[in-house]
Structure formats: C-alpha cells, structure tokens
Amino acid sequence: MDYVLDFEKPVSELENQIKELKTSSSSPQLDLSKEIAALQSKVNTLIKEIYQNLSPWERVQLARHPSRPHALDYINGIIDDFHEVAGDRFYSDDMAIVTGFGMLDQQKVAIIGIEKGRKTQDKIKRNFGMPNPEGYRKALRLAQLASRFHIPIITFVDTPGAYPGIGAEERGQAHAIAENLEKFFSIEAPIISVIIGEGGSGGALGIAIADRVLMQEYSVYSVISPESCASILWSDPKMAEKAANSLQLTPQKAIEFEVIDHIISEPAGGAHRNPEEAVQLVKKSIQDQLKNIVNEDVEGLLEKRFERFRKMGNKYIK
C-alpha cells in the first residue's frame, strides 16, 4: 500500500518501523520479537481509534482510496466462470460499466459493475468510473436479459457520477438514466446492489434500483458529490469538505434514512488494507441477502421493490 492519506500517516510510520525491525531481526544474534509485538499492538489500537472517529470528508477520501478494491476485484474474487457481455446495440461499448453472467457458488447470476480502473491508461479507458449513456443502456440490456430467465442480478456501484461531457448529453445521458430508473422496477429477477466505494448521484442510482441495497462500512452514497455540491452552493469546489460534512454520506445515516438495508463490515483500517478479506465479507453478505429473496414470487418481489423506494423519506415529512 503505497498511497497514504493524511490521517493514515501515524499508522504508516509505525508500520514502517515494524518492517525495519523485522529486517533487522533476520540476524540470529537479535531477538526483536517483543519490540515488534509491542509496536503491532500499538498499530492495532491506533487503527481502531482513527477509523472509529473519521469525519465525513475523511470517509470520502477513504472511499476514493486508489488501493481500494474495485468492481473487477469483486467480480474476479466472487464470481466463477464470468462471461462478459459487451455493447449497448445502439452506439458502442462503454468500458466504465462491466456486465456479464457467471456463477456465485451454485447460483447463476448476472453482474453489472462500474469500474474506475487502476493505472493511468486503464483509468482513461474506464473514463474514471463515469459511465456514458451507452453504459446505462448496456446495463439495462443485461438486466432485461436476466429478467427473461429470472436470473438474480448483482450490481457493484463505484462512481463519482455519470459522465457530464457534451457528447454524453448529446447521446441522451439524462434519458438513459431515467429509463433505467423506470425499467429496473419491472425487472422480473431479484436485484442486489452493493455500494463498494462512491455512490454518486443518478450515476449510481442508474444501476442501484434493487430489492436489497448494501454499503461497505467506509463507502459513501449521496445525491451529489461533495465537489459538485460545493460548486453549486458556494461556487467553489474547494469547499468540498464543508459540503461532505453537510451531506450526511455515511452508511449509518443511509440506514437511518432507510436508503440501504445492510452495512458490510470492512477489515480493520478499510478494504484497501486487506482486499482479500474485504472480497470475502462482501461475498458472504450477498449470499445472505440473496437467500432471502431468490425464491420470492415475481409479483411480490416487484411490489416490495416499488414500495421500498416509494416510502423513502416519508417518516421525515411533516
């Protein structure tokens, strides 16, 4: 883990000391096991203290951590025999959204994931996780195919928002997202959506109309990104931290507002510190939720899905 956030630096410094001691202890004349154990204990305590008291803006930074597992990491770690489906049959294949079919243990599933990319060329290829309209049309195409055969759908959401470029708007960005919002309510298959990093605006909601919505512990889900919110309210994107503190982005608030159904625990210090464990925790949560809805009758499933979104915010209306 090369990239270190400001609030992670105290932990990083201690871990570097541990590495140095381990290197030194390779000599048979030196036994530094007690010193290493003491430092490791201090690291564990510090991680617990820091990550229990993160500000909303620090949570946004953590959700964007470049070492955090992405959609393809979860697809490759959870899904067996994955076969990608490309293109929207209208314009092109949007690489920001990955779709396909595979197996979750013995259950055939359809997969939709927003992928940000890792290295520079891959980020450009994936458009930094900002889908174009053809991406949303591809996602809908796959969902409707899964609906035809009643195959459960799993979506992985990680985007700052839909791409706001002129070309995307010319090709019907708003219409593509609106169409997904409408038609996902009539998909005749169970849908589970997992917020694995950023869940930004309609760009996220375009693939997050689901029967169960899950959030990882250090992910964020909001009607708008902090930078865009700051640009609108104060004409200054540099005030993103103030916006983040006002937006109430955390999974705990999303549970309170009945926007999501379940929070997925992450490894100590966040998913980027132990990606393999994070993948397994997400897999188990998906399996647990899928058991509850996979055998529901279609009419009941669709009615509950509609009511789930219809009632959001009702208890706050006076």
Description of the structure:
The protein has 318 residues and is α/β, with parallel strands linked by helices. The protein is built from 14 helices and eight strands. Strands 1, 2, 3, 4, 5, 6, 7 and 8 form an eight-stranded mixed β-sheet that branches. The longest helix is centred in the first third of the chain and has 19 residues. The protein is globular and about 65 Å long. It starts with 8 loop residues before the first helix and ends in an 8-residue tail after the last helix.
Helix coverage percent of residues?
40-55%
H/E series: HHHHEEEHHEHHEHEEHHHEHH
Per the principal axes of the C-alpha atoms, what is the gross shape? globular
Most strands sheet: 8 strands, mixed
Task: From the alpha carbons, calculate the radius of gyration and give it in angstroms.
Answer: 21 Å
Distance between the termini: 48 Å
Structural class: alpha/beta
Task: Give average pLDDT, whole number.
Answer: 90
pLDDT < 50 stretches: none
- Strand runs, count: 8
Tally of helical runs: 14
What proportion of the residues form beta strands (DSSP E)?
15-25%
